[in-house]
Amino acid sequence: MNVLIFLIGVLLGLVVGAAVCVRYIRQELTARIAPTMDILQLQLGNLQTTVNVALASWQAGLHDHAAAPDPARAEKPIPSQTIF
C-alpha cells in the first residue's frame, strides 16, 4: 500500500513538473521569437507597400495608354454617296 501511494506521488510530481517545464519553455520561445517576428512583419509590410505602389503605377500606365487613341488607327469617315 505504501508503494502504491509512493508511485502515485511520483507520477503526480512528474506530471506537474512536466507542465511547469512546458509552460516555461513556451514562454522562453515566445520571448525569443517575438522580436524576430516583429522585424519580419515590418519587412512584409514594406514589401506589400512596394508591390501596391508598383501595381498602381502599372495600372495607371495602362489606363493612360488606353485613354489616348492612336491617330493611325482612327476610323476614317466613309465618304457619303449620293443617289440620283
What are the main properties of this structure?
84 residues, mainly alpha, 1 helix
Word description of this protein:
The protein is mainly α and 84 residues long. The protein has a domain at 2-56. 79% of the residues lie in helices and 0% in strands. It contains 1 helix and no strands. The N and C termini lie far apart (127 Å). The model has no long low-confidence stretch (mean pLDDT 84).
Topology:
Layout: H1 2-67
Summarize the structure.
Helix content is 79%, strand content 0%.
Query: What is the tally of helical segments?
Result: 1
End-to-end separation in angstroms reads 127 Å
Strand pairing plus helix content: what structural class?
Answer: mainly alpha
- The geometry reads as rod-shaped
